[in-house]
Write a structure and sequence with these properties.
By secondary structure, this protein is mostly helical. The chain has a domain of 58 residues. The chain is built from one helix and no strands. The longest helix has 56 residues. The protein is elongated.
Amino acid sequence: MAIPKGNMRGLQDIRTLSGKVDQTFQPYRAYLRIGGLEMEKARRNKERESALHRVKIIEERFQAIDAEKTALLRNLERKNSNAQPADTKKGEPIGESHPKKSGFRIKY
């Protein structure tokens, strides 16, 4: 007896819907996904609050730096306007009106 050359179908060739169940028919998966999304949202909110707190600290430090810089510049302007001696020459640094002496002498 010869084997027929047509398409022989068996039990394994019957198509079924197993494995093709839509996700909406599995409510536990939807609830699990919702729970995961809520946890991610809470974590991201905590990260955001932490980042905003760090930015606030940095902004406060910028203000403190600007205030200190302004105070130092005011002090320099006051000292420069009051500390100009009359006998200094232009271009000569203050405190170097005498020529430099190298070393020092000790008498015995």
